[in-house]
Amino acid sequence: MRKPETIERLYLDFDGFFASVEQQADKRLRGKPVGVVPYEGGVRSSVIAVSREAKMFGVKNVMSVVDAKKLCPDMVLVVQKPDLYRRANNAILAELEAIIPIDAVKSIDELTCVLDDEQRADPELLTYRIRARLRENIGQFITCSVGYAANRQLAKMACKAGKKSEGRYGSGLAIWHPQEAEQHLFKVKLDDVPGVGSNMFRKLMRFGIYDTEMLYNTQPKQMRKIWNNVTGERLWYALHGYDIQAPESQRGAFGHARVLPPEARSMTAAYEIARLLLVKAARRLRRENYYCSGLWIWLSLRQDGWTRTMKLPMVNDDQAVLSALKQGWDIALRDLGRTTTPFRVGVTLVDLTPAGERQTDLLLADDVERQRWEKASAAVDALNSRYSGTVVSVGDWKPPKGGNVGGKISFTRIPSAEDFW
Fold first, then answer.
1. Where does the UmuC domain start and stop, copy by copy (predicted)?
2. Comparing C-alpha atoms, which of 197, 372, 410, 392 is closest to residue 279?
3. pTM more than 0.70
4. Which residues pair with 257 in a beta bridge?
5. Sheet with 49-50, side-by-side order of all strands
6. What is the rounded distance in angstroms from the CA atom of residue 42 to the CA atom of residue 259?
7. Fewer CB atoms inside 10 A, N or C side of the chain?
8. 30 — phi, psi (to 5°)?
9. Residue range(s) defining the domain that contains residue 386
10. Coil, helix or strand at residue 362
11. Are residues 234 and 281 in the same domain?
């Protein structure tokens, strides 16, 4: 396993990306504290992104609007516009590619690059060129922090440390050369180490590991034991500066979820939104040439939640998955009652099989009918693609207030243009 002797990776993170894109797109928001909310009138929801001006008042992402307003009464609330953020991301990536090849886009506001010899020799100049190009061609309100280190893990940690330094937001720069990486690393809080979530943090406490230096000095086999898999051992090598990459993840599911606006917090309205979310998931399933054999339905309620997994033959058409949803929802109504108040709904297609490996269910003997429904779904997809919108659908197509059904931007996925049809 190779251990680089110099910096080889860049990690770039845009600060308050949704909020800064809003400020760049709307002059009226510039210089003001901005909080992005999931739906119109979202005073009972949380801010999903905040601008640097709001952060200076102590407002943080995923803070309730009520608490955020207590800290910053003048904060302007803006409803999220996922398609705007997607288009901004596309424009930014095109500008960055003109300076340095992008190795991996980690999320809509994070990416990593491999440095060539010239860039390793002068990372400050590379950072200046990146920021200057973005400022000139994208705008001055979308800013970024940049971290450099021997590998991706350390570069990400450097980037986060630089972002927090000296009270700056979106203008940090941190360079962790291998020979001095330890002194920077040991200043990082244990729960700020990527891969150490809240559950793992508590587990490390039980093992007597209380800070990053103690984690660093733990043996790799012990790390594997704590994580109960090879991930812990990989983390050990990454923290010690080795060039180690996690294997590519395999597609495991297609799903969508949505926080329900107040007017849709009933079992009847939630079902209609779940139906639209499921059609969007099925479209993605077909676009990427998969079949599924299961549907996972879940609801967030006032005190707890409800889930159900429905088994399916190997399918990818709208009729099959919508029938499973209806059956699952009937069970939910039986279990919860019609007066239950759901706050969030999600649907996920699971147990995936590549289209080329599909096998029909001999006992079910529905292949002729199934092929007809598949052809119908393919025809619907073709029409919607031709007109870049949902012009044909199975059942009514009435997106809820605020739209964005199936167009949610998650930590691991950037929607495509088709997700907004």
1. 9-197
2. 392
3. yes
4. 346
5. 49-50, 34-37, 76-79
6. 10
7. N
8. -70, 135
9. 254-420
10. coil
11. no
